[in-house]
Amino acid sequence: MSQIAVEDIYDHLGEEKLQQLIAAFYQGVKTDEILKPMYPADDFEGAEYRLKEFLVYRLGGPQRYLDERRHPALRMRHAPFAINQIARDRWMELMKRAMDQTELPADLRQTLEAFFDQMATFLINRAD
Ligand code: HEM
Q1: Residue of 45, 58, 124, 128 with fewest CB within 10 Å of its CB?
Q2: Is ligand 1 within 6 A of the CB of residue 26?
Q3: Which domain of life is it from (predicted)?
Q4: Would you say residue 117 lies in a domain?
C-alpha cells in the first residue's frame, strides 16, 4: 500500500469528510466520563470548530486556523488539562472509533492514525 503524506490528506479527503470525522469524534467525547469534564460544557461547538480548523491547516488545507489562533502551541494549550496515559488512550480510542464510522480509505486512515497517535503521546503532561 502506498504511503500518503500528512500534508496531502486534506486534498484527498476534502473538508466535508473531515467535518464528519470531527463531528463523530465529539459525539463520543460528549458521553465519555474521562474526557467530557475536560471540555468546555458551554462551548462544545467551539471546541469542535477549533480542532477541525487545526486539522484543515495541518493536513494541508487552507490556513485559516493560523489567522485565527496564530501558532498552535498545542503543548501549551493542553497544559491546563490533566492528560495522563489513560486520558490519552481514551482520546485515541474515540478518534479511532470516529475514523471507523467515517469509513476512510485505507491509506489515508493509516497516515492519519499514525499522526494522531504521535500527537496524542506528545501531549501527555501528567504521570498516571
Ligand atoms: C491526548 C489526549 C487529548 C486530550 C485529553 C485533549 C483535550 C483537549 C481539550 C480539553 C481542549 C480544549 C477544547 C477547546 O478548544 O475549548 C483541546 C483543544 C485542542 N486540542 Fe486537544 N486533546 C488531546 C489530544 C489532541 C490531539 C492528538 C490533537 C491534534 C491532533 C489535539 C488538538 C487540539 C486542538 C487544535 C485544540 C484547540 C487549540 C486552540 O485553542 O486553538 N488534541 N484538547
Answers
A1: 128
A2: no
A3: Bacteria
A4: yes
Query: What would the pLDDT profile of 85-110 be if each residue is shown by its tens digit?
Result: 999 999 999 999 999 999 999 999 99
Q: Is residue 128 part of a domain?
A: no
User: What is d(CA 58, CA 55) in angstroms, rounded to the nearest whole number?
Assistant: 5
CATH number at residue 81: 1.10.490.10
Question: What atom in ligand 1 is closest to the CA of residue 80?
Answer: 10
CB 22 within 8 A of CB 51: yes
Grid coordinates belonging to 52: 477541525
pLDDT digits (tens, 9 = 90+) for 20-57: 999 999 999 999 999 999 999 999 999 999 999 999 99
How large is the angle between the packed helices 85-102 and 15-30, nearest 10 degrees? 130
Q: Is the CB of 6 within 6 Å of ligand 1? A: no
Handedness of CA 40, 46, 47, 48 (dihedral sign): positive
Q: How far apart are CA 86 and CA 6, in angstroms?
A: 26
Q: Is the CB of 74 under 6 A from ligand 1?
A: yes
